[in-house]
Amino acid sequence: MSFFKNTLWLKRMAIFSSFIIVSLILWNTYIFFQKFKQEERAKVESFAAAIEELATRGLDESMSLPLKIIEQTTSIPLILVLKDGTIREWQNLDSIKATNPKYVADQLVKMKKQNKPIVINYLGETEYVYYRDSDLLNKLTYYPLALILILILFLTIIYMVFSANKIAEQNKLWTGMAKETAHQIGTPLSSLLGWIAILKMEKVDDKYVGEMEKDIHRLNTIADRFSKIGSVPVLKKQNINKSAKTAFEYLQSRSSKQIKFHFFASKEDVFANTNIELFGWVIENLIKNAIDAMQGKGELNLTIESQPKKIKITVSDTGKGIAKKQFQQIFKPGFTTKKRGWGLGLSFSKRIIEDYHNGKIFVQKSELNKGTSIQLQLNKVS
After folding, report:
1. Residue 51 and residue 58: Cα distance in Å, rounded?
2. Are the C-beta atoms of 90 and 79 separated by less than 8 Å?
3. Domain boundary residue among 141, 176, 194?
């Protein structure tokens, strides 16, 4: 329990810390961006002042500073425009693209949108210096996005680690419960076998003793299934028609007579590598869920379809159905629509089929108040 509390606390701290970090990154980047933008405008203003000085006083030896300022303004793209809107000259644009007047005109449109122009007045003439943000400043706008993406990646890794630990802890818990259940069932089973022997000696009706032996065999199978949880089961070539029919007939004989059971399979046997106890458990889980969904009355079909590489086993009922949004949820541990139960049957079934048998299990179709069909697929062997 403390593990889950610590994990929850760590997740909350990670989310809160991430929010603070992202906020600081965005704020500091915004401040830095504005400061850098102001410095670039100051450079353009110095450039405009140098142009104005040169135009007013002419070129002589005292103009070395304005010339130097103009020469050193190399990172900010700018365009000088006359009062009538004619482009007089440009600076720091792509020299090849700038041979095309349309490119220069397009750059001017961008500059007008980005920044206010700087006015130059000299000898009764007026010119405007338009400019746009430098490439360095443009790249800076993507800096916080890159940091946020890195942070998201970091948080994703943390979340995956926590989730993996949680799943491992849950698996350990379910495995421990399953093995303990198998151990607890074993003790009364041994006693029941002894009582069966006594009943035979007392010459009790073989019919009753036979039924008791079936149920004891059933309990022994259940204990064996639970004991296999958490360990890699041994798979052997099995007759799927026979294995499925055994589970089908067992539950048919112990279910309401108002439920019509139908078993459909080809006359030709089909085979797959399975663990017979765990595979039978899956079939029984699907049939039990179908019986519960019909509430004691309806029609249940188990169909086995053989394909060149796959075996498809479909259990259909005429029960209450499943909402489409729950198609994936029903296979999650703890999910149940019943008043009783832990919601582990389909979760175990999914693990048995997909993890142990390398197959698939899914809701093939379902309609509310009409019924559900769940299909599992296995790899066929010859």
Report:
1. 10
2. yes
3. 141
The answer to whether 317 touches 371, Cβ cutoff 8 Å, is yes
**316-372 tens-digit pLDDT:** 999 999 999 889 888 887 667 666 555 678 888 998 899 889 999 999 999 999 999
Q: How far from each other are the two terminal CA atoms of the chain, in whole angstroms? A: 48
Q: How far is CA 175 from CA 19, 87, 182, 280, 286, in A?
A: 38, 79, 11, 19, 21
Model's pTM, two decimal places?
0.52
pLDDT at res. 234: 87
Q: Are residues 250 and 376 in the same domain?
A: yes
Q: Please tell me whether residue 131 adopts helix, strand or coil conformation.
A: strand
Structure tokens at 303: 């169909």
Domain encompassing residue 173: 165-209
Q: How far apart are CA 90 and CA 97, in angstroms?
A: 12
For residues 17 and 24, give the distance between their C-alpha atoms in angstroms, rounded to a whole number. 11
Q: What is the CATH number of the domain that holds 295?
A: 3.30.565.10
Q: Which helix or strand (DSSP H or E) is residue 142 part of? A: none
Q: Is residue 149 part of a domain?
A: no
Whether residues 239 and 370 fall in one domain: yes
What residue has token string 């405007």? 128
Exposed, middle or buried, 372 (CB in 10 Å: 0-12/13-18/19+)?
buried
Tell how far CA 374 is from the center of its chain: 23
Question: Cα dist. 90→39, 55, 77, 339 in Å?
Answer: 20, 16, 8, 78
